[in-house]
Amino acid sequence: MKGWRPPAPFLLLLPAILVLAAVVIIPLILSLYSSFTPFRLTQPASLFTLIGFRNYVRILTDIEFWTAFGRTVLLLTVALNVEMLLGLGLAMLVEKATRGQRLLRTIMMFPMMFSPILVGFQFKFIFNDNIGLVNNALQSLGLTDQAIPWLIDGSLAFFAILVAEIWSSTSVFAILILAGLLAMPKEPIEAARVDGCTPWQTFRYVTWPFIMPFAYIAMTIRSLDVARAYDIVKIMTDGGPAKRTELLWTLVSRTAYADARMGLANAMAYVAILLSILFTVYFYRKLAAARTQIAAEW
Amino acid sequence: MATVSLEKLVKRYGALEVVHGIDLEVADREFIALVGPSGCGKSTTLRMIAGLEPVSGGNLKIGGRIVNDLPPRARNLAMVFQSYALYPHMTVRENMGFSLKIAGQKPEEIAPQVEEAAKTLDLTHLLDRRPSQLSGGQRQRVAMGRAIVRNPDVFLFDEPLSNLDAKLRTQMRVEIKKLHAKVQSTVIYVTHDQVEAMTLADRIVIMRDGYIEQVGTPEDVFQRPQSKFVAGFIGSPPMNLKDAEVVDGQLVFTNGDRLPLPARFKDRVTAGQKVTFGLRPDDLYPAGHGIHSGEDADVHKQDLRVILTEPLGNETLVFSDFAGAEWVGRMLNPRRLSPGETLPFCFDLSQAHLFDRESGRTLRG
Q: Does domain B240-356 have CATH number 2.40.50.140?
């Protein structure tokens, strides 16, 4: 008896489809589904109760969620801008180096080689109010005679996290912008100098438009990174004091694992992902526009 | 409008000296071409004038003012680069108006100047395009437009036509000549193409290994080369240059073949002197297929064997065997020759050159 045979393309794709289904599609559907249930890890049966959009309604009207959301956006905006400026400065300095440029490039990437958890611990120590380096230095220099509660005061703690984040990731910008600078043809810069540009004008009108796409690539990568910031914050403040440094993902993980409310946490996660997608789309558009402008062939 | 003076100008990179104290006076509104083989220092010299390379020694004056330490923007020059160096993110209009914008002119002042230059260069219909949407020739015209708009004291061209194909190059050469006639600026033009130098320049500066070999009008450098190098560099195909010795008022070549000593040099050489004999292909032709410019008595006839011919249509280059070497001659109103054929050749010795073999300098007075 001749049975039905699936078409060859389907058969050939089947292994890939199975793997994808197992590791991506099914978890995705399951988590999306659970965001419509009051699922708690402690009550497995709750997975089968559908409550419609109640989780979403709840988080969208929850001031705590919106505070964390806003704080994440703030962290993202400040960190990206500062990293961009510092990275640009670093890249331009390294580009000027006539000797040891390779070595400098490698050194520049050191912060990226550390696990964020370790960076968190390191900065937790640096900003410690009793034995931390920062307070020690400030007091030794006579700038203050008090122990500044870096990780205890809400806004100072946010600042400390920001510093750790920037320290660990400025090199992403530096490396990508340096790549742009090295790829840039030198003649337009010389033409600009002969055309009467001061060094600043040369940068503003010729160099910057050329490296803009590279900066946007770094922005895209880093916006995804910061939007899911978790490890550094978890170690340094764990969202504290009194939730003053709570970010989206620390909130999500607390809801999911400490409070065991998985359904609610999944709903939060989907809203958080929306934020990432928005930023990515935004920077990607900027990137495309910048590339067209310089007629990039890549 | 300005004069440019190079006084003992030196360029060093670390311990390596690449331009060795050259002197040059460029008159106001003069078109000067710097030519020479690659690595002769012509581009480096131009870049020093532009201010893109610091001067290591000597003085550089533009309009009588020493500009050694002035940045490019304070020199009021315009430069056209080999690779065009257009700003890729700006339209043609913005590219051309950029220097004026930087100089602080208002948009309504810039527009008419850009339009004017665009009209001169036939770019009006391209003003809103980006460089990436233009052909090589069009980009080169934009680069020139960008230079014209500045109304500079001195135009600098760094091998501007090297990236164009042969036909476009000829066309742009004519445009540059017209342009110079129109804007009447001082022009310093670097090229390795002697045809460009010969056709465009009022005077040609021939450089070699960081020294100036000769400065002169195109006729000067072609007809009165000061050295063996210039003689071999200018002219295509190059001048026949063969070593010989003066014996009994004759030139004896290394294999023993002889030619009469050209009358002009009779009193300028001594017996036994080692010389290099130079004769342009135009002055070596099969009898009846060339023109001699001096007295009949100065034409020496000799039978030579043809090795190879290169027919070019209106003329044929004939490679023949003499004095144990290959000599190239130019045959006008050519007829078909076959290799191996022997026929009478004319040496127009009134046009011959003699150089001292040691120093390479000309023996002409």
A: yes
Q: Which fold has domain B4-233?
A: Rossmann fold (3.40.50)
CATH architecture of residue range(s) A61-293: Orthogonal Bundle (1.10)
How many C-beta atoms lie closer than 10 Å to residue B333's C-beta?
10
d(CA B276, CA B279): 10
Distance from CA of A185 to the nearest CA of B (A): 8
pLDDT tens digits for range A84-129: 999 999 999 999 888 888 899 889 888 888 888 999 999 989 988 8
Torsion sign (Cα): A205, A210, A211, A212: positive
Q: Do B52 and A190 touch (CB under 8 A)?
A: yes
For A27, the 3-state DSSP assignment is helix
Candidates B191, B195, B212; CA nearest to B35 is B191
- pLDDT band of residue A298 (cuts 50, 70, 90) is low
Helix, strand or coil for residue B360? coil
Question: How much of chain B exceeds pLDDT 70, in percent?
Answer: 99
The mean pLDDT of B52-68, rounded to a whole number, is 93
Do the chains contact at A295 and B89, CB–CB below 8 Å? yes
How far is Cα B282 from Cα B328, in angstroms, rounded to an integer? Answer: 9
Q: Which long-range contacts (CB under 8 A, 24 or more apart) does A58-61 make?
A: A58/A264, A58/A267, A59/A264, A59/A267, A59/A268, A59/A271, A60/A271
| Residue ranges of domains in chain B | 4-233, 240-356
| Contact between residue A168 and residue A119 where contact means Cβ atoms under 8 Å apart | yes
Q: Which of B81, B103, B132 sits opposite A196 (nearest CB)?
A: B103
Q: Taking 60 as the threshold, does the pLDDT of residue A297 lie above it? A: no
Q: Where do the structural domains in chain A lie, given as residue ranges?
A: 61-293
Searching chain B, which residue's CA lies closest to the CA of residue A294? B89
Given an 8 Å threshold on Cβ–Cβ distance, is B79 in contact with A194? Answer: yes
Give the tens place of pLDDT for each residue, A137-186: 888 888 877 878 888 887 888 898 999 999 988 999 999 999 999 988 88
Long-range contact set of residues A295-298: C-beta below 8 Å, sequence gap at least 24? A295/B88, A295/B89, A295/B130, A295/B131, A295/B132, A296/A213
ipTM confidence: 0.82
Does any CB of chain A come closer than 8 Å to the CB of residue B79?
yes
